[in-house]
Recover the amino acids of this structure.
């Protein structure tokens, strides 16, 4: 091997250790084009390619590494590659190929005369398969074997993966507290940097999956924040697709629906090359958001695609049928879904609240009573706030349907407290609506209207069109008021954009750019939330945000620029961001806005310079801003016939 090629290989290894995945792939592939890489370097190329979003290259490199290890007579490392290939093909639903590679790994390990790491990875794989098929006793046995092998061989990745899988199996067996203790122990090891990135990703993913199954959103959020801190410290841009699915689910639960749909869509694109079942989860997440904003056609299409990817589209599809007015069809499908998962408590916990809602619409109170009791039993075994709140809400619904409004109110009050405690705005608003109905049935109309009004404001802020309309009707409004599709509303629209992003990407490189974007997005979102802004969508390297109050929009824009300036002073660099503001009327469109005012706001934003806040004169004047304004100037906006007077807001 020439010195030039050796240098290129070393550059690839160094980039791999820095987690500069794209650079590692480029250097190793360039060296590989001149002379065949060693099996060890091919394994590095495979992992770097996986993180860089190129699973085809990862699979090809592992196949070659497997062959190379066999040529060297190294059956243990050849088996490791075979096990990784089995997992990759299984994630793509290529079952026959996955089984072939797993069989090859098993045969190779049977031929070895000593215990090696591949035996531990094989046990971990068997534990995972047993968990998926519901054989929790076998999962527990194989996971304990993986832990023992990891400890004997001083391989912490295998050891803690085994511990995590034992926790998963114990939770599935109903020993939730014991299982979560093991899961937390293994996840601490992962996100504190003790393990390699690939194992860290596997443990994090499985941990969040358990949290989702238990509806333990507080724990899920804590571990997601910890994983993102680890990514930041290690220079890892994230785990392709997987992180986005989990972030989307947490965003959805917390009420950031536009963010949730965007993340889920990006996850669909990434996971279509990696993990088809998880891509189905992402499609289902898109469907849930669309259903709640009233986009029934879009929800149906997303649920259909999720079903094609082997994700059971329930309870979303049944709730969709209910929203379409087909209560009998919805009831039939949700009962069938429950029957199919009779022994799978995790999935039952997700289906039962929908079955109760649909059963009430179908006026089958006897079945509803059974479902409520079953959900309460699950809540007792899980012990998580969200499932307890769901059970209280379900009992309140049932009691109200039976005419016991007074007793229902106590359960509904408790559900509201719990939902509010864990930051679930949609569920809180739904419980408030039902509480209002109970108060009205009990003769307290004034308090009932207070609950309805609070719920309606929350639904409108979320963009929950159907729910907002229903509460509007409870308040005596013929069609509901805000948030109806096509309604004209007045908002202050804010557009932001990073100036000169293309040369920045070239200068920083892909990995550093992704880290910068992550920091930028988190910082700006925190500021928008603080001042009451509702993110409509991301626009390239910026945001489109709507504010109900022009003064709050200006305060937020100033806070953004000052935050970026402080970052430059303390850290030496922050991107230059331009901001445009314009108050105007626009038509609502689910969680979006449309109309001339939106276009004018976007055009004003495009005229701003880096570090500048540009606003229409009327917007700045109406807000009575406490910041100095430049002299007005008249500008012509593309696509707008009349000139518009704009001013610069002096924020320094």
């Amino acid at each position: 091997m020439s010195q030039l090629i050796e240098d290129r290989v070393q550059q690839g290894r160094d980039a791999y250790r820095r987690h500069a995945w794209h650079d590692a792939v480029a250097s190793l592939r360039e060296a590989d084009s001149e002379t065949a890489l060693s099996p060890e370097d091919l394994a590095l190329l495979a992992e770097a390619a996986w993180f860089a979003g190129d699973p085809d290259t990862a699979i090809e490199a592992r196949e070659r590494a497997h062959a190379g290890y066999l040529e060297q007579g190294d059956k243990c490392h050849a088996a490791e590659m075979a096990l990784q290939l089995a997992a990759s093909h299984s994630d793509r639903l290529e079952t026959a190929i996955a089984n072939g590679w797993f069989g090859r790994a098993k045969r190779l390990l049977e031929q070895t005369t000593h215990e090696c790491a591949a035996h531990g990875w094989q046990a971990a794989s068997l534990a995972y398969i047993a968990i998926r098929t519901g054989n929790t006793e076998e999962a527990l046995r194989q996971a304990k074997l993986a832990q023992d092998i990891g400890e004997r061989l001083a391989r912490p990745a295998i050891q803690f993966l085994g511990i995590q899988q034992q926790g998963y199996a114990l939770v599935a067996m109903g020993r939730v507290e014991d299982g979560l203790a093991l899961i937390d122990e293994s996840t601490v090891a992962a996100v504190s940097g003790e393990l390699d990135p690939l194992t860290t990703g596997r443990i994090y993913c499985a941990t969040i999956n358990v949290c989702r199954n238990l509806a333990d959103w507080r724990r899920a959020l804590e571990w997601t924040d910890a994983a993102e801190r680890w990514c930041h410290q290690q220079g890892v841009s994230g785990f392709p697709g997987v992180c986005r699915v989990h972030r989307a689910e947490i965003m959805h639960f917390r009420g950031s629906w536009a963010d949730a749909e965007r993340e889920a869509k990006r996850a669909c694109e990434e996971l279509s090359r990696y993990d088809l079942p998880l891509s189905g989860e992402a499609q289902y997440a898109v469907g849930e958001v669309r259903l709640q904003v009233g986009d029934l056609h879009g929800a149906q299409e997303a649920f259909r695609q999720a079903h094609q990817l082997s994700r059971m589209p329930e309870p979303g599809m049944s709730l969709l049928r209910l929203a379409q007015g087909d209560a009998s069809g919805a009831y039939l499908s949700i009962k069938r879904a429950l029957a199919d998962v009779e022994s799978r408590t995790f999935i039952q916990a997700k289906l039962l609240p929908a079955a109760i809602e649909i059963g009430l619409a179908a006026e089958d109170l006897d079945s509803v009573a059974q479902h409520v009791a079953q959900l309460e039993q699950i809540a007792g075994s899980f012990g998580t706030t969200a499932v307890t709140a769901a059970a209280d809400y379900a009992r309140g619904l049932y009691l109200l349907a039976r005419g016991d409004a007074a007793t229902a109110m106590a359960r509904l009050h408790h559900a509201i407290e719990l939902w509010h405690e864990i930051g679930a705005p949609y569920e809180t608003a739904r419980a408030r609506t039902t509480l209002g109905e109970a108060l009205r049935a009990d003769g307290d109309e004034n308090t009932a209207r207070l609950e309805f009004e609070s719920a309606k404001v929350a639904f409108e802020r979320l963009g929950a069109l159907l729910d907002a309309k229903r509460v509007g009707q409870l308040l005596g409004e013929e069609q509901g008021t805000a948030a109806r599709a096509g309604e004209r509303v007045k908002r202050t629209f804010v557009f932001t954009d990073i100036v000169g992003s293309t040369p920045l990407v070239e200068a920083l490189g892909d990995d550093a750019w992704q880290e910068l974007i992550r920091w930028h997005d988190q910082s700006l979102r925190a500021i928008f939330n603080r001042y009451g802004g509702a993110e409509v969508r991301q626009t390239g390297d910026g945001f489109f945000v709507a504010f109900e109050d022009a003064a709050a929009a200006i305060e937020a824009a100033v806070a953004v620029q000052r935050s970026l300036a402080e970052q430059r002073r303390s850290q030496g660099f922050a991107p230059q961001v331009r901001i445009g503001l314009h108050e105007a009327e626009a038509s609502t469109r689910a969680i979006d806005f449309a109309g001339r005012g939106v276009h004018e706001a976007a055009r004003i934003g495009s005229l701003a310079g880096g570090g500048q806040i540009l606003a229409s004169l009327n917007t700045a004047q109406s807000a009575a801003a406490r910041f100095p304004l430049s002299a007005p100037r008249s500008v012509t906006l593309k696509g707008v016939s009349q000139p518009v007077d704009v001013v610069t807001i002096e924020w320094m």
